[in-house]
Each structure stands twice: as C-alpha cells, then as structure tokens.
Amino acid sequence: PYDVLVVGGGPAGASAAIYAARKGIRTGIVAERFGGQVLDTMSIENFISVKSTEGPKLVASLEEHVKDYGIDVLNLQRVRHVEKKDMFEVELDNGAILKSRTVIASTGASWRKLGVPGEEEFANKGVAYCAHCDGPLFEGKDVAVVGGGNSGVEAAIDLAGIVNHVTVLEFSDTLKADEVLQNSLAKLPNVTVVKNAQTTEITGSDNVNGIKYLDRETNEEKQIDLQGVFVQIGLVPNTGWLDNTVEKNRIGEVVVDKHGATTVSGLFAAGDCTDSVYNQIIISMGSGATAALGAFDYLIRNPIE
Ligand code: FAD
C-alpha cells in the first residue's frame, strides 16, 4: 500500500506528490491524463520565475521532476470510486484497487463547454476559456465573451483593457454578475452587452472570424465579425468519483480547510477540484504542497499499530 496516493496529475497533483515523496514516504499518482489542463494551454506567462512557456513544455518539466523522486506514476488510468475501510481503497475504471493510508484528491476541473459547432475545431485558434491566461494574445482585436455571470463580466473587464472591443453575449434577459462588476462594465467605452443571445456557432477558416447567435426576443439569427471568443459559462469540478463521501459546496467543489483536509480524515484535496477561490497553476501547486504536508502531519499522528 501507499502512504500517500494522489489522484490527478495536474500541477496540484504533481506538487503534492513531490512534497510527499520528499518526506521519504511511499507515494503514487494515478491520473487520467498527466498534465491536466496545462496540456491544453498554449502560452503561460504568469508562472512566476518563468517569463514565458508553453503548456506541454511545463508538463514535461513536471514529469521530469516527479520521476526524479521515484514516484509511481499510473498514467491513463481513471479513478471511479474511493472508499475508506482500514485503509483507503481507490478503484480504477479497469477494476483494479489501489490501497493507501491517505489520499489527495487533485482531479481539477473542466471548463463548461458551449457545445456549438466551431467550439472544438477552433480551440486554441481563437476560442479560449481563460482571460487571465490568453487575453494578451488578443491585443488590439475584437472578441466576444459568452456568459454574463461573474466570471464573464470579470473577463470582459479584464479584456477591455487589452483588446479593441468586447461583446458580452448573455443568454437570459439580465446579466447575472454582481452589481459592482456590472457598474464597472457599464463605464467601459469599448464593451457592448447583448442580452437574450443564444450562441449558435463559432465560425472561422484557419482561425476564428466570427460568432453567430440567435436573438431570443426576435428569433433572428445574427452574426458578429471578431477574432476571439472567450467561453465563460462556468467550471465543472471533476469530483464525481468522490460521490457523497466528502463535503462539497453548491457547485460540487470539495470543501477543504487550511491544511487541505476534507471532512473525511486522511482524505485531502488540492487545486481546482476544491473550493479555492482562484484557479491558477501557481495556486494549485501551492495547495498541492499544503495537502501533502497536511497528509504527512496526519500520518505521523496516526501511526500503524
Ligand atoms: P488539472 O490541471 O485539471 O488536473 C487534473 C488532473 O486530474 C488531470 O491529470 C486529470 O486527467 C486528472 N483526473 C481528473 N479526473 C480523474 C479521475 N476520475 N481519475 C484520475 N484522474 C483524474 N493557469 C495559469 O496559472 N496560467 C495560465 O496561463 C493558464 N492558462 C490556462 C489555459 C487553459 C486553456 C486552461 C483550461 C486553463 C488555464 N489555466 C492557467 C488554469 C490552470 O491550468 C489550472 O488552474 C490548473 O491546471 C489546475 O490544476 P489542477 O492540478 O488542480 O487540475
């Protein structure tokens, strides 16, 4: 059995595993896709101390660092269930069961997709999901933000300082963002808000060149020429495998304390699958370190009899 089994191989999981292994305890990582969201990222300019890098390059460094500690990496394996008996039993999709004294859940999150034609085809070719990350690539261009909740309006405010023009497309007849954010948005000269807009297609040839939407009031199809689309309709935490074993918040994120501990003793969590307020690589790595140190504290206080 492992002392620490990390479920998820993104920045949170890699960091947790390295911190755990540095304590000289038996550590494993099981990941559906080692690298996580970072593999899908084109350029990273806010990973402090590295001025600029690309997602796959950062993942290769993570893997090299993890391997340096002799951590067992079970890649391309999905966990479907965990149960606490005398130890944790972590069940994989292929039926195998891994045993561990502690588990660190770091299964991240997935952007909620629009599910319209063009979204997948132009991913990383004008379709983006993270304004902090990819905003600067659209300097001087015209973009749309789909979604008028807090994240959409924040993204629009952020982008308005960089791009030429931002159109916010909101499905319902009101923006859902906090009033202070809406007030800031209303003051910006280069932002247009379109309500009752149901996005129907993202168009392009090599890269995005426009967006089509249905005006739900008039039932008319409309089109805007632009070079970028930021989809901001929420993140879905990958926490289904935890069932109802741990406390989660309203949107399914695992609730953790300052030690990265969940409501099940010995089960820790880190990164985007938790109720952490901001989702970034550097933040996930920090919380992965916290969860590993929390798990180590737990192990030395609960020795095997
Ligand atoms: P993830 O990276 O989501 O990793 C989750 C891991 O868990 C993966 O290995 C996944 O395969 C695995 N997994 C999921 N479910 C299971 C399961 N059931 N069983 C086994 N394994 C499972 N942040 C920045 O700081 N800077 C940027 O420039 C930046 N750009 C971004 C661009 C894009 C397009 C995206 C999508 C995100 C970007 N982010 C950026 C955000 C950043 O990538 C995330 O905050 C970070 O990756 C979260 O790390 P994580 O380890 O918590 O989760």
List keywords for this structure.
five-stranded parallel sheet, NAD, 305 residues, seven-stranded mixed sheet, redox-active center, 22% helix
What features would you describe in this structure?
Its EC number is 7.1.1.2. It catalyses: a ubiquinone + NADH + 5 H(+)(in) = a ubiquinol + NAD(+) + 4 H(+)(out). This protein is of the alpha/beta class. Helix 1 packs parallel to helix 2 and helix 4 packs parallel to helix 5. The relative contact order is 0.18. The model has no long low-confidence stretch (mean pLDDT about 95). The structure holds flavin-adenine dinucleotide (FAD). The site of flavin-adenine dinucleotide (FAD) has 38 residues, from helix 1, strand 2, strand 9 and helix 6.
Tally of helical runs:
6
Question: Based on CA inertia axes, which overall geometry fits?
Answer: elongated
Mean pLDDT: 96
User: Which molecules are bound in this entry?
Assistant: flavin-adenine dinucleotide
Please report which band the strand proportion falls in: under 5%, 5-15%, 15-25%, 25-35%, 35-45% or over 45%: 25-35%
Largest beta-sheet characterization: 7 strands, mixed
Beginning-to-end CA distance, first to last residue: 15 Å
